[in-house]
């Protein structure tokens, strides 16, 4: 009796990615637009409630029950507005594209309210203490350290997945120094954050959301 074999072949993962990528990009854009609109709306609400609080305070007095209720409404709306702005700032960060011969360490530096902290210096430091990539946080607290091209020497290790970050030796030859790196954030000359990032791998992006203590 003959045997029959049926092979069902579907689209490859790359083809699926190509087909769905436009839809994903459209959805991401819609989410960002919605978050921006929500942040603006909550900001306008906060402004309107603040004006109403001022009117009530003048009419009934700053210590009246009416003024106290209005003050509570102002504080409550401020929390909502700040949260909406934090979400919008987070979504402004576009997912970076990484090729097979580079890697990216990126993220946001935020305060306790999850609002971005601009103007911090972000650096990736190799095991010998040498910076291999550096950038500044933008108005949303976002930074991106792209280890590609001339910004760092990237060489595959024996298993072809780890990354050896090379530092500049005294003889001018870039030599391997290890697989790990330190992510450092600083304000002027003051270091405010340091984290060791182990086992960096080619073709990947590492994301960090870092809460900076306001006292530092």
Give the count of helical stretches: 2
Task: Tell me the strand percentage band.
Answer: 25-35%
- Beta-strand segment tally: 10
Q: Do you know the CATH architecture of the largest domain?
A: Sandwich
Radius of gyration from the alpha-carbon trace, in angstroms: 25 Å
The helix-strand sequence is: HHEEEEEEEEEE
| Strands in their spatial order, largest beta sheet | 3-2-8-9
Structural class, from helix and strand content? alpha+beta
Question: What are the SSEs and their pairings?
Answer:
Elements: H1 13-60, H2 65-92, E1 103-110, E2 121-125, E3 131-136, E4 142-147, E5 153-156, E6 163-168, E7 174-176, E8 181-187, E9 190-197, E10 205-211
Parallel strand pairs: 1-10
Antiparallel strand pairs: 1-4, 2-3, 2-8, 5-6, 6-7, 8-9
Short description:
Helix content is 35%, strand content 28%.
